[in-house]
Amino acid sequence: MHLVLTQPILQRLRNELGEARRREIGGLLLGEHLEGETFRLAEVTIQRTGGSAVHFVRDPALNQEQLDEFFSRTGADYTRFNYLGEWHSHPSFEPLPSSTDINTMQSIVEDPAVGVNFLVLLLVRLTRWKQIKVSAMMFRANMQPEFVQVSTESDESDRKGWIAAKLLRIFSRR
Ligand SMILES: [Zn+2]
Questions:
Q1: Can you name the CATH fold of 2-172?
Q2: Secondary element (H or E) of residue 12
Q3: What is the reported pTM?
Q4: In the chain, is it the N or the C terminus that has fewer CB atoms within a 10 Å radius of its CB?
Q5: Ligand 1 center to residue 158 CA distance, Å?
Q6: Domain-by-domain residue ranges, the chain?
Q7: Interval 60-77: pLDDT, tens
C-alpha cells in the first residue's frame, strides 16, 4: 500500500502539533482512493482532547460525527472517499507504533462490527526544527501489520512531482 500526503495536510498537522506541545493529539484519516493500492490523504480530523504526554484516547462520538460530515461533503461516494484509519502524535518518543497502538488497531480491524478490510495508523512527530516525521502501518484481520510506503505530493497540480520520501523521514517543503 502507498499513502500520499499533501502539503496542506502536513501544514495543518504542523500547526496543530505545535500548539499541542507535549500532549498527544490525533484523529481520523480520511482517504481518496487513487488507483490500485494507492490512497491520498484527503483530510484529517483533529481531536485535541483526551491525550497526555504518553497516550491518546479516541473519542468515538466525535469520530462518528466527523466521519458523517466527511461522507456528506464527499457525496457518500464510498468507493472513492472513505475512512482509512487513524493518526496520533508521539511528542515524547519516535513516531513508531507502540505495542498498545498495534494491539488496539488489530482489535479494531478484527471487530466484525467495524466491518473494514484494512486500517492504517499514521504516527506523527514534530521535530525540534519544526519538521514532521511520520510512519504509517497497515492492519488487516488475521495478518501481520505492515509498514505503508508514504510519500508527499509536492504540487497538487502535478502528481508526477511526487517526492520519493523515505519511510520515517518525511520533511515538508516549507
Ligand atoms: Zn501511540
A1: Cytidine Deaminase; domain 2 (3.40.140)
A2: helix 7-20
A3: 0.85
A4: C
A5: 33
A6: 2-172
A7: 889 899 999 999 999 999
